[in-house]
């Protein structure tokens, strides 16, 4: 055998391995793409749904519960966004926000967003109420939370709870971080007027101050409905928020 | 292996420690007990060793004999099972005992990412030099061991021989009074070995004590004043090289031509070896006292003498004879 | 003095082995990722950045400790570079303290660099009010990493690199859960309860270094908290290194 042959053999082996590697990776690439298109995707919140509660999840975060809450927040936002434009069903919402707020009890925006989402789109006012009360218990000096709970009671679809709304607006007004109109809204609610104009103001407050684009969208929608109702001489806007196509309300 | 727990060395030993000796040990031992079988293996047994200041002491033995164990005990890298030792009067295992010592381990390893000058400066500073002095000496010694041109090369790119040279430089950078070299020639080519021999002789002339552990006997023979032979964990004998060699019989080699058919007389059977070579016949006499009679016989038989050469007995001969007499075949005793 | 020399060399090795660069790169990548995710966070982008940034310091630091710290002593023994040090007038104690200090310094560099990046982000977003609490959280994260490093050095002195890594992770987990362990122990009869409480007390009290919840809200921790955490970290590190010294003093380097 000549001295050249071993070198050529090595080069040939290397080339064969390279070609084989490229072909196999190519096949994997195609399969991956096909899997993405054909097979069911894991839902983003599947994993969270299996945890019994946020308290049990806490130890697993190894002291980084705030970060875990943030990651859960991202997933929750994604979940909300997806279902809002498809079927408007938010079955896992309560559970997810329970976990989120157990991981990060002082994450006030999570209570607010969760409360609104559950009350408005989710059609589950009791769950919203539970969440907000949990938030107030963990953050007793949060004027913002008290104000938002008052707000939810005031605009509650299917029947305002004016007494409770007044209570929480008033509570909010004593806290340093409350919106300045808290006392004014407390007065409106105590007057028992159920005034659409007051509701309009409340939603305008949300539009002005919220950093949450979803909440601002909701506020715009509600303000539009209220304006239409006022124009038509009505005193309420109806049970469910308008704008959700009926066809999407059919069960799966 | 787990070390056998021991009694600590006796207190107040410094009063027994002569300061004119560079190395002084009494009953220094190291035993290992196997953790499962509890069998005890002896690494070193009852070493009584004295090395005087300024001498070059060769420490001989086959692999696993206890040479490296001795060195590590002296340097505190191993804790003794029994006995005691001192370096310049300081008990072994203390920082003070290592202050005046330079050590070159067998197969030295260094920090891969450092360059030669960086490592030498680090070594010098750890041995008590200040930063500027350490840098200066690092540059000097790097040049002295022939690596001055490769200053920026990281140690991971050094060849085995280069690492050996750096190790040697590191052992000398702080001007030690005792140099302990474990197989200093290993990995070196003939030029490298010559350089190391010169370095050792240079240190000897400066009055530095050198303890040289090796199994390359010609080097030891050339450099050492005294030699100790360790076999099976025990120091068998110490003496000067001349004493050791003189105790061996001298051989004589006689080369001649024209004697292919002569038969060696019976009286010399077993004491004369015969080699037929193209250029003639060579007779090796194991007893130099037979020279005259053998020459007379060869001349009488008609051979033409070409050369008569005395062969000085070597340390190797001595070493092998000691080993055979002690029933040691030199195989590595170290178990897994 | 020898400990300082060894610390400097250990730091230099970590830097030259590009571990430091990799850690800083990972931190930069993490912070960049937070900026890309921020728009998805419905106005909570800054909170996301601070939380992920602070968590990143801990986890990147922990990765470095597991990669380097747990094999530090064992590797030097295997490669026999330890002969070069301990054959000189260097005590085993100085050696261990130096190794710990060098790696801890590298980890502090990572923590401070990421902390500085977070402060810069807060300034550019007009959230300077959060800066004091973030600085506190970074300081405590640095202390936490120093403690974990000391634990890793201890295990590295008594065990192989692989086992050291496992023991270090184990003690890290027990430390993180030490408060849960104490609460859990309360449900048991006194013998087991005492054992659990002792285990919780012996493990490093890592929750004391965790003010990430406060930092997320921009709330500043009281100075006493920082003092207690600092003293605790110093005591725990010194204790771990003392135990490591005890282990190494009787060790033979064959």
Short summary:
The complex is a heterotrimer of chains A (252), B (336) and C (254). Chain A has helices at 4-38, 46-49, 54-57, 65-85, 93-103, 108-119, 125-138, 143-155, 162-173, 182-190, 196-209, 213-231.
List the helices and strands and how they pair.
The complex is a heterotrimer of chains A (252), B (336) and C (254).
Chain A: H1 4-38, H2 46-49, H3 54-57, H4 65-85, H5 93-103, H6 108-119, H7 125-138, H8 143-155, H9 162-173, H10 182-190, H11 196-209, H12 213-231
Helix pairs in contact in A: 4-5, 5-6, 5-7, 6-7, 6-8, 7-8, 8-9, 9-10, 11-12
Chain B: E1 2-3, E2 21-33, E3 40-52, E4 56-60, H1 67-75, E5 82-87, E6 90-91, H2 95-98, E7 101-104, H3 116-126, H4 131-144, H5 160-172, E8 178-182, H6 190-205, E9 209-214, H7 217-223, E10 226-231, E11 234-240, H8 241-246, E12 251-257, E13 272-277, E14 280-285, H9 291-300, E15 304-311, H10 315-325
Parallel strand pairs in B: 4-9, 4-10, 7-8, 8-9
Antiparallel strand pairs in B: 1-2, 2-3, 2-5, 5-6, 10-11, 12-14, 12-15, 13-14
Helix pairs in contact in B: 3-4, 3-5, 4-5
Chain C: H1 2-16, H2 19-37, H3 45-67, H4 72-79, H5 82-86, H6 92-124, H7 131-158, H8 161-176, H9 178-185, H10 190-202, H11 212-217, H12 223-249
Helix pairs in contact in C: 1-6, 2-3, 2-6, 3-6, 3-7, 6-7, 6-12, 7-8, 7-12, 8-9, 9-10
Descriptive overview:
Chain A has 252 residues and is mainly alpha-helical. Chain A contains twelve helices and no strands. Chain A has helices at residues 4-38, 46-49, 54-57, 65-85, 93-103, 108-119, 125-138, 143-155, 162-173, 182-190, 196-209, 213-231. The longest helix of chain A is centred in the N-terminal third of the chain and has 35 residues, at 4-38. In chain B, strand 2 (21-33) and strand 3 form a beta hairpin. The radius of gyration of chain B is 24 Å and the shape is globular. Chain B is α/β, with parallel strands linked by helices. Helix content of chain B is 30%, strand content 29%. In chain B, helix 3 packs across helix 4 (131-144). In chain B, the strands form three sheets. In chain B, strands 7-8-9-4-10-11 form a six-stranded mixed β-sheet, with helices on both faces. In chain B, strands 1, 2, 3, 5 and 6 form a five-stranded antiparallel β-sheet that branches. A four-stranded antiparallel β-sheet of chain B has the order 13-14-12-15, with helices on one face. Chain C has helices at residues 2-16, 19-37, 45-67, 72-79, 82-86, 92-124, 131-158, 161-176, 178-185, 190-202, 212-217, 223-249. In chain C, helix 8 crosses helix 9 (178-185). The model of chain C has no long low-confidence stretch (mean pLDDT 91).
